[in-house]
Design a protein that fits this description.
- It is built from 11 helices and 13 strands.
- By secondary structure, it is α/β, with parallel strands linked by helices.
- The strands form 2 sheets. Strands 1, 2, 3, 4, 5, 12 and 13 form a 7-stranded mixed β-sheet that branches. A 6-stranded parallel β-sheet has the order 8-7-6-9-10-11, with helices on both faces.
- β12, α11 and β13 form a beta-alpha-beta unit.
- The longest helix has 21 residues.
- It is globular and about 60 Å long.
């Protein structure tokens, strides 16, 4: 599925199987996650380095060919991909913070062709094996939709036993796994969303309380279900001005707001910046963190949580490769609960 030019719909195309260099691997794609990041990318100028481009960064596949310099995987191995193209040698990469790479080369599916295809090439340093007990679909979803809340809850929000946690966008593809991850860390979870189906999904996947974003001031509702105290942590998977302001307003003293999602003005036509009261930040000792994706090690740890069945991948729809635009339209209409996935080789949606 090829993005022919900025702002155009994806098109079915037949392209050559990509060639690889000595440090690359060629994958036969088994599953590709479908999330809002890809939808934003197709309409956001600047991220895609050239056209036509094959999108898709949540990828599970089988190694078909490995370059001569690749030693940690071999043909026949099932692997997943890291989203960022990094240098591996700068001070951030060497200290385990590769998402801050100073020689960053762009994103899989944007600066190079991604997983909305039957085959893709990727640097060998970007792949890691899938445990035998984890399915292709679950593994693909793990690389972003599950690993992102793993990092956000554990490293940025620092959720611990007894903490109250507000999950904004709790029924979406990342948020529904944020509910599970916050629970796994020991949190008492308040889930916020704006559709009946997503609120019910948040309940089903462990939320202790739900708040309907359509039902009035969210911060007031959050304080009502936390006995007036507010929450210790608020990972915001939406990133609009409205959600960021209400998350900040719902924090208890010493609380931590974590910004994970973002809403580019070029795509959504709105300014997502929000005001901060420095007096309240100081008096209540509040924290605001940016949480930018994950490390490859965190993807490995997330796969292990799936293997142990301590986290479950929530995939509500799968589509054939040609169904990518249908899946994207459902995302634009906020009509998907959890994640969707493309399965090259299937002939109809399920």
């Amino acid at each position: 599925m090829v993005l022919p030019a900025f702002g155009e719909p994806l098109q079915v195309a037949t392209v050559p199987i990509p060639s690889i260099g000595p440090g690359d691997v060629l994958l036969r794609v088994r599953a590709a996650g479908v999330g809002l990041t890809v939808v934003i990318m197709t309409a956001n100028p600047g991220r895609v380095t050239s056209f036509p481009r094959i999108p898709g960064h949540e990828v599970a596949g089988e190694v078909v060919e490995a370059g001569a310099e690749v030693t940690h995987v071999k043909p026949g191995d099932r692997v997943v991909c890291h989203f960022y193209l990094t240098c591996r040698t700068c001070r951030f990469c060497r200290s385990g913070r590769e998402t801050l790479c100073t020689a960053f080369r762009g994103y899989v599916g944007q600066a190079c062709d991604g997983g909305y295809a039957e085959y893709m090439a990727i640097p060998g340093a970007n792949v890691t094996p899938i445990p035998p007990e984890v399915s292709d679909v679950d593994a693909a979803i793990a690389t972003d939709a599950i690993a992102t809340p793993y990092h956000a809850c554990r490293e940025e929000a620092r959720v611990g036993p007894g903490d109250t946690v507000l999950i904004v966008g709790a029924g979406g593809g990342v948020g529904i796994h944020g509910v599970q991850m916050a629970k796994l860390c020991g949190g008492w979870v308040v889930a916020v969303d704006v559709t009946d189906a997503k609120l019910q999904a948040a309940r089903d996947w462990g939320a202790d309380a739900v708040v309907d974003g359509r039902g009035g001031d969210v911060a007031t509702q959050v304080r009502a279900v936390t006995d007036g105290r507010g929450v210790d942590a608020a990972p915001d998977f939406v990133g609009s001005r409205e959600t960021l302001e209400m998350s900040l307003a719902g924090l208890a003293r010493g609380g931590r707001l974590v910004i994970i999602g973002s809403r580019p003005r070029s795509v959504f036509g709105i300014d997502a910046s929000f005001a901060v009261d420095p007096g309240r930040m100081l008096y209540d000792m509040l924290e605001i963190h940016g949480s930018r994706y994950v490390t490859l090690t965190e993807i490995q740890q997330t796969l292990e949580l799936l293997r142990q069945r301590r986290i479950r991948a929530v995939v509500s729809r799968t589509f054939p490769l040609e169904g990518a635009e249908e899946a994207h339209e459902l995302l634009r209409r906020n009509a998907l609960v959890g994640r969707a996935a493309l399965l090259p080789g299937i002939s109809s949606g399920t």
